[in-house]
Amino acid sequence: MPKPNIFRSHIRFLLCLVTPVEIVLLGVSFTQPHEDVGQNDYSRCEMHLLPDPLFSIQSDNTYMLRVKSTRDGRIFLAGKDGCLYEIMYQAQDGWFSRKCRKVNHSSSSLSFLVPSFLNFSEDDPMVEISIDDSRHVLYTRSEKGTIQVYDMGADGCSMRRVTAVSHYSMMKHAMYYARTIDRSNFKQIVHIAAIPCTESSRLHLVAVTQTGVRLYFTTIPFQGGWLAGVGARDRPVTLALVHIRLPPGFTANAAQHRPTNVHAALYSKGTLLLCASQNEESDQLWCLNPDSFPFQRSLMETQVTHVIDSRTWVIDEVPAVPILTPRLEPVSDKPRVPDPPSVVTQHTVMSPAYILLSSKGSYLVSKLRPVDQLRQLMLNNMGPDNPVVESFFTLHKEDQACATCLILACSRASSDVQVADWATQAFFQYGSVARLRTYMAQPQNPAANLFGSTTPLVGQRPGSQYGTAVTSPPTTGLQPSVASTPLTASGYQDTPRTSAGSTTQPSNDVEFSGKLKGLCLYFGRIARPLWELHVAVEATSVDYGPKRNLLVTNFDSSELAWVLDKMKALKEFLDRNSQYTGVAESVIATGMPGFVRPESVIGRPVGREYTQLQQAEAENVERKALQHLEHLINSCCEVLELLQLLCYHQFHNVTAALPQETRDQLKQMTFRDLVINGKEVCDMLITALINCYIGDNATTDAISTKLRDICPSIYSQEDAICSKASELIKGAQQAQTRSVKEKMLQESLQLFKTISQQLILAAVCSEYHQARFYDGVVDLSLSAASKRDPQNLALHYYKNGKPPEDMQGMQAFMARCECYRCVTDILDELVLVSQEHPTSPVVPTYPGPPPQPDPNQLSSQDAKAYMEAMMQKALSCDDELFHVALYDWLMEKGLKDRLLQITSPYVEQYMKRAAQYSADNLHVMDLLWKYHEKTGNYPAAARILLKLAERHSTDVKLQQRIEYLSRAVMCAKSSNLRTSTSSEGEFLQELEEKLEVARLQLQVYEAIARHSTANPRFKAALIKLNAELVDITKLYGDFADVFDLYECQLAIVHCAGHYDQQLVQSLWQQIIDKELSENIDKPADGRMTILAKKLQALGRIYSSSERYFPLAFLILYLEKKSCELSWHPSWVFRCFLDMGVGLPKMLSVYDGHFKAKDPFWQTCAQPLHLLIVICALLNTFAESASRVAIHERRQFINVCLDAIANYKVELEATTGMPQSVQSILKNFKQLQAKLDRLQIAKT
Q: Of 40, 484, 574, 721, which one's alpha carbon is 20 to 30 angstroms from that of 18?
């Protein structure tokens, strides 16, 4: 096959002709006789050889002895000069290369520039080339036995010479490993063959000597006695001998006849053909094959000889045509598992043949598969009842022989009718019976799997002396070869070969019969091509529209058809022979004891009756296993037919209708997963297929009938009803009148109600939602809940507090909740739509006019109406558990007001139960007090509110606690209006006190919050204040006092009624000092204003209580601060005047302070400060007499005049009469005159 993208598509192959003068490449094409013949079916196509050469180059007088090509189109030639050449061809000429040229890989990449007469290499012609396409490695053999290894790279596109091993070196190593073997047996090598990774992961090459000895080599280095890497990307680095396998005739009990003078050989997939010269005119053909011993612990093979009446020139293989096209595995770093033995794949591959070309013509030799051998044995002996067939079962073991029998017994060919009957008889005659095990399994021989087949180690006896012919015609009575060299310390164990369907024993006590094992093996072998393959893969669409990712089937139609045909044949075999699979019911009816382990009965006599019971028990276990196998076969047949039907209906179109989640799941599923655990995916595929019919307005009756026929366990009668109902829903959506639509929806509802457990309720409710049939959603959900829990166990489970030990009740409760969830999910959607605002502007996603509104989209008004109608329908039912689910949904969605509006008798029970089992649930308790308040139970509401306020948690903030207490006070007062008792009065008083303390706590919280919340100390205090209500003592000691919250301390002392004059004065002093210190950087006017506002704010609170508002202390302290800060003398009394303190009272306080003669004034050098302030105070009155009540004004004027007289006396008595004294005295005289005039005016 040529390299890709070089020649036109009609050139399928290249023919390379080599002469001593030139090398010619010709094109080969094939034409299809008619359209039914595939392009790759070359056996039915006409071959044409293009007359004009594609390429022609000179051979430079080099004789080419061999031509070999790789799978990807590279052509290699073995030259008589001992060099390896390659024909390099390409589509166009390059800078330094022509379209076609010859390259010598044995010398240099530029060898084409050197003339051939300048080559002075030693004369050792290269006579053979072998290519390993699986690893991209090339091997050559010279006439003198030198083997060279070339690495073509991991991608097969490069070329590198790795190593060369001479024949002397190989013979030296062989003698070292097999010292008892004569040296002459390792002389001339006549054949080499690459061993692909499909045959062995560690053996890479086999060489055959002139005496038939096989030398196995590896290209991977040894490390610690084991081969290093075995991955596909591990490149060759050496060529080392690892095993020697001798031909027949080297064991002590073997005949002396052995192959000699071998001049031609062929090795392929374990089979070895040797042509040994008897004389110059005839050969003896030796055929060695391991297929009859695939799973033996000893390495064994069969042999047969034929006489060829001429000398053989060459041997080659006619490859077996596979019934199923093998899939190419992608190259990966992981080692590839070798292919299983031919006995596993014999039903999928035709018998290979070998052609021998000689001077008298060609000979065709066929290798019989085990099934061909069994067929020929029964045909030769006219049935299975003969020792030869029995020996076949002995040789292959019962399970393998039974699996081979099934190939013939399940054959549907008209020519195999008699053979099928004989094979069925042999299956049951020699298939043994189930029995209890009485032995321990022996360990596996590690050397048995080294080559995946068959030669025992030296000195071991084979388990059977039966040999079978491997070529046609068959011969019996042959002795298998048993000679081989033992493994040395550097030996290794290959990966064991396994096959799909290899059975494991489900019981430790029962040994299944060969019949059941054979059935399992045969099932696994026919399911093997698809078993581990993914069902679907992604592909990109190739149409003219936009590119889309499609989900297409991973199975070819021929694969599905072939596997389905074999599965049906196996199913028919079981149906035809069901009478053989029963158990002796008469024995079982007598009663069977429990399983008795074999060890417990060893050493004591076993009665006949007991033995019969044991046998019956083992057969009963096997019958159960057979039932499971039959169920698996039926499932496979149904899934395969379903896949065929989906492919017929365009698999990618059906999967396009699946939800994305199901598509992703289908991409990850293998055929095995689909058969065993893919019921839901199959249901979704069938639903999508039915929807395709419904979407095309086609009736579903025909496809439903077809599905019922091909997969009744997947698509049941209830599924057909669902399809019909879905068709009615689709028709209702397209109905022209409302009455017709309602009728079709009601019909679909009645059909859905007849289905019990198989209904996919969520999908149906979604369809009803699309059809706006919300009454049907409620009715169908309630009907499904009733059918899933007919005994109403869920309600009993709910009312008993959901005990975990009631598993049956729990399952019923979950089943009902799943049905109810379909209703609440649709209510969710309606609520969401009803809250949308379609008229709000949105940013367009693309230019142009706005899109037309969807006529099928619900408006917010319609959604509200449908939701209310659905709620009314739901609330009208008598299913208490559904009411509970509906109330839970209202709570979850925050629709508590809607819940309180419901008048159902189930509401009160729901509230009480919710409060009982969810006492710590804030939302439930919050709803409960509202319910009590609505029903007029105010005491209960007040006590719940108090409990919520005192709740120790961070989910309730302090502000919310105060709200709860305020509402509790209101409820308590409402209760007192109806009935007044002493206990209720005390409770109301307690609530009011707690409310007052809570407000103080809020004041403390806000005061702390004004500080830096980044401080962990402050943050912890805030969390604690938010978490609970604290008592007043703790509030003062742990918070107000600790954090120096003087205002809060004053408030707490005032609230508690605790009076301590020194404490109160100290708190006021701290408040004033703190305010002054916080505003120290501001100007005097600003500081005065800020301090005045603070004092006024506090004065409004405490001015009514003289004990907590020490006026005299405050005035004196503020005047001292004013004197120190040189503030305006009138700001203090004006501040108190603004608080509402009367002038008479203030004059009395100032007069008292003046008469007290506090030494502070002398210390600060302001002895007349108070007189200045008093003068300003009285002047304020003189200018605005209305500040004093009219009935007190006369008396106050007299008091003022008397005080002025005293102050004048004090001033006049001052020594020296300084200017400041004279100024104050003058002011007092003026003030006295004003007051006199005011008094006269008053009079």
A: 40
Most confident of 165-174, 593-602, 952-961: 165-174
Ordered DSSP codes for 638-684? HHHHHHHHHHHT-HHHHHHTS-HHHHHHHHH-BHHHHHHH-HHHHHH
Q: Give DSSP secondary structure letters for 789-824.
A: STT-HHHHHHHTT--TT-HHHHHHHHHHHHHHHHHH
CA 648 to chain centre: 31
Kindly provide the b/e burial profile for residues 1174-1184, where b requires at least 16 CB atoms within 10 angstroms of the residue's own CB.
bbbbbbbbbee
CA distance linking residue 552 with residue 53, whole number of Å: 42
Q: Are 722 and 784 in contact (CB under 8 A)?
A: no
CB 753 within 8 A of CB 768: no
Q: Token pair for residue 1205? A: 């007289």
Structure tokens at 1029: 């209500």
Per-residue pLDDT tens for 931-989? Answer: 778 777 888 888 888 888 888 888 788 888 888 888 888 888 887 655 556 677 788 88
Cα-based angle 437, 441, 447 (whole degrees, multiple of 5): 155
The CA–CA distances, whole Å, from 253 to 257, 259, 288, 454 equal: 12, 17, 18, 19
Which pLDDT tens digit goes with each residue over 153-162?
988 889 999 9
On average, the pLDDT of the chain sits at 81
Q: Range with the lowest mean pLDDT among 259-263, 576-580, 800-804, 1044-1048?
A: 576-580
Measured CA to CA, the distance from residue 44 to residue 33 in angstroms comes to 8
pTM: 0.62
Give the type of residue at 445: N
Does the pLDDT value for residue 735 go beyond 70? yes
Q: Is 551 helix (H, G, I), strand (E, B) or coil?
A: strand
For 784, the 3-state DSSP assignment is helix
DSSP string, 266-315: EEETTEEEEEEEEETTEEEEEEEE-TT-TT-SSB-BEEEEEEESS-EEEE
Give phi and psi for 1003, each to the nearest 5.
Answer: -65, -40
**Consecutive H or E run containing 136:** none
Give Cα 972 distance to the centre of its chain: 58
Residue 1225: which residues within 8 A CB-CB, separation 6 or more? 1208, 1211, 1212
Query: Of all residues in the chain, what percent are helix, strand and coil, respectively (each to 5)?
Result: 50, 15, 35
Q: Quickly list DSSP for 362-430.
A: EEEEEBPPHHHHHHHHHHHTTSS-SHHHHHHHHHH-HHHHHHHHHHHHT---GGGHHHHHHHHHHHHHH
d(CA 512, CA 520): 11
| Helix, strand, or coil (residue 1145) | helix
Query: According to DSSP H, which parts of 1057-1189 are helical?
Result: 1061-1078, 1084-1102, 1111-1125, 1131-1139, 1143-1156, 1160-1163, 1169-1183
Tell me if residue 841 falls in helix, strand or coil. coil
Give the contacts of 213 (CB within 8 A, at least 6 positions apart): 174, 181, 185, 186, 244, 245, 246, 247
Each residue's pLDDT tens digit, 1009-1022: 887 667 888 888 88
3-state DSSP assignment of residue 1081: coil
Judge contact between 744 and 737, C-beta under 8 A: no
441/1023: higher pLDDT:
1023
Q: Tell me the average pLDDT across 98-104.
A: 87
Q: Which residues contact 450 (CB under 8 A, 6 or more apart)?
A: 243, 299, 487, 491, 492, 493, 494
Reported as a pLDDT band with limits 50, 70 and 90, residue 213 is very high
Determine the pLDDT at residue 587: 35
Listed ranges 445-454, 459-468, 669-678, 683-692; the one with the highest mean pLDDT: 669-678
